[in-house]
Amino acid sequence: MSGRTPLMAANWKMHFTVDEAVALVEELNRGITRFDDREVVVAPPFTALAEVASALADSPIRLAGQNCHWESQGAYTGEISPPMLRHLGCDYVIVGHSERRQYFGETDESVNRKILALLEVDLGSIFCIGETLEERQAGKTLDVLAKQLRGGLEGLDEEQAGKLVLAYEPVWAIGTGHTASPEQAQEAHAFVRDNLAKRFNNAVANHMRILYGGSVKPDNVDELMAQPDIDGALVGGASLKAASFTRIVDFEE
Question: pTM above the 0.70 mark?
Fold first, then answer.
């Protein structure tokens, strides 16, 4: 056993009104019972964060934002700052998700600025990296992961790095129904952990949780979680139904 506590995170993306989000989290509160040896996180849309936080007041389920700006305040219409998310009760914020990179022009530099800003207010980052189908087919997967890690972790020291959660999400597997095989996922996770050891040290690398994201479902989560370097899941579509996400949380290694 690695000694790392598995983290199962639900990224609801642009789904659910406030009432729908509260109803789902109330179902999860009733359905999820395994919290002693794993951590559970939900990331609702910004509009539902306050009400979901209230619904989670007496629950072990933790709250995450789906994104943030790197400034604490300013003339940035439509943006949300780390202090705002902290005030709402968030423990984590997802940064660098491939959809943010693909559709909204986020770069390794902007992701790095967000990670540093979140550390300033003691919020954890779920820092996403991953290659496109074209990059995988060209044999560039490990080069892409190394570049994204180098850019995203620029300027962080060992103590700061120890507060992060990483998420490997092959872009070609997100929302497509295609999942990296357990062997493909493990290869990428092992590479990331080795990269962290070289960038920081073995203690940081062995401590940091690395999640897998990319069409995680009830029928593949057990096999994925059996891999030695996969420490949890960042779940999209399968987290939109209480029954499927509960089964994912209840994985068996």
Answer: yes
**Coil, helix or strand for 116?**
helix
| Residue 245 burial class via C-beta count within 10 angstroms: exposed 0-12, middle 13-18, buried 19 and up | buried
Tokens (6 digits) for 61: 């389920």
Among residues 148, 129, 128, 158, which one has the least CA distance to residue 66? 128
120, amino acid identity: E
d(CA 151, CA 165): 16
Taking only the tens place, the pLDDT of each residue in 27-44 is: 999 999 999 999 999 999
Phi-psi region at 15: left, alpha or beta (left = phi > 0; alpha = psi -120 to 50): beta
pLDDT of 179 over the 80 cut = no
Stated length of the chain? 253
Return the beta strands (E) in 22-177 as ranges: 39-43, 62-65, 92-95, 124-129, 165-168
User: Which residues are the active-site residues?
Assistant: 97, 169
Q: Which domains does the chain have, with CATH numbers?
A: 7-65+129-150+157-249 (3.20.20.70)
